[in-house]
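A reminder from the course coordinator: this example appears on the midterm review sheet, so study it carefully.

Given structure:
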């Protein structure tokens, strides 16, 4: 029986990726770089999980060699820009998410997060959208900077499962991307896949259920997956 839902964050809880893209471009401009990631390029770069990893990959694509210290400084600046934008209310929860969370809590379902994004990004989004008591809603949070390998590796889901003290068959992951589906399935979790703007063309095969949006989420899906 499924009694726990583990959410991805970027693209799943909220359509964050466009704000991430704008924050990356602002960070590049602020240090005098002429890089500009347009929507088409960013869609491709999202195949690489993790902001620092994405910057490193882009530098490699340009024929350069990435300096880890420079990448870390640049990503830190980008994170500060992004969290300021989120704090200002630039990123709401996706339609249907708040209603699903409220329904799950009424049913006594445990909620958790397993994401490749960093803890400052998590805190900014959840404080902005759910308020200061968000830790009561999500008592377990697995972030990308807590594990050695990011999605599609299963590490962050395995971390969440350890913290929850739950076997994977009691849990379901909600994901929006191919890498997320692969990570959750590798950790033994069934997946509800929800299409998002930047993963609209992703191959989500392997998910138990595929939905066009988060408004289609319902508690009834959990019993269907359990049966």
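Designed residues:
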């Amino acid at each position: 029986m499924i009694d726990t839902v583990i959410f991805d964050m970027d693209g799943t809880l909220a359509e964050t990726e466009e704000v991430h893209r704008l924050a990356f471009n602002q960070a590049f401009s602020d240090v005098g770089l002429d890089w500009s990631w347009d929507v088409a390029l960013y869609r491709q770069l999202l195949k690489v999980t993790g902001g620092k990893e994405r910057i490193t990959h882009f530098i490699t694509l340009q024929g350069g060699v990435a300096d880890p210290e420079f990448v870390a400084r640049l990503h830190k600046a980008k994170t500060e820009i992004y969290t300021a934008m989120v704090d200002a209310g630039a990123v709401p929860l996706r339609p249907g998410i708040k209603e699903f969370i409220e329904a799950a809590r009424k049913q006594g379902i445990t909620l958790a997060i397993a994401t490749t994004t960093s803890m400052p990004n998590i805190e900014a989004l959840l404080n902005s959208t759910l308020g200061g008591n968000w830790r009561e809603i999500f008592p377990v949070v697995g972030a990308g900077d807590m594990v050695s390998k990011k999605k599609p590796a299963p590490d962050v889901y395995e971390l969440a499962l350890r913290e929850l003290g739950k076997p994977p068959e009691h849990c379901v992951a909600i994901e929006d991307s191919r890498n997320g589906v692969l990570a959750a399935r590798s950790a033994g979790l069934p997946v509800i896949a929800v299409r998002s703007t930047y993963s609209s063309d992703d191959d989500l095969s392997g998910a138990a259920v595929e939905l066009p949006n988060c408004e289609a989420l319902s508690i009834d899906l959990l019993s269907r997956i359990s049966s």
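The mean pLDDT is 96. The radius of gyration is 17 Å.
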